[in-house]
Amino acid sequence: MTQPYRIRESRIWAQARADYLSGLTAEAVCRRHDLGLSAFRRRARKYGWRRSDQVEPPPGEIDLSLYEDIDLDELARTARLRFIEAVEGGRASDARRWRALADDLTREARAFDADFFRGMSHEEVAASLEGMRREIDEEDEALLGPPPED
């Protein structure tokens, strides 16, 4: 199935450029910003986005802050989707690796949750999660405005 032609705003391309030059792979940048890999490579070649031209940070001073907003549940979901994509594409070895990664991430997320909510009843956990969701929704609305009406 072919992907539809997508036009992206210049700010998205600027973010993609910054992510790529900071060390993300072209494939990771394209997944993060929903860009086509060939379009990304074409633009990088045209505008000279070369990591070799960047100043190398001293060892141990790599900035990993661009990954701060990604949680284990989101990573596990992405790995499951990649597993499905590999199965549908007939890539069994890739599917096996994605499935193992998804399972590992899910186990790690559950272990974190068990430790975080230790000693709380089921009702207290549900109330805590609802409060967290409400806080996230309020922060999103403050940053992005109210969601559009259906």
Automatic annotation (TrEMBL):
Record field: compositional bias (Acidic residues): 137-150
Domain of life, source organism: Bacteria
Region annotation (Disordered) ranges: 131-150
Protein's recorded name: Uncharacterized protein
Species per Swiss-Prot/TrEMBL record: Brevundimonas aurantiaca
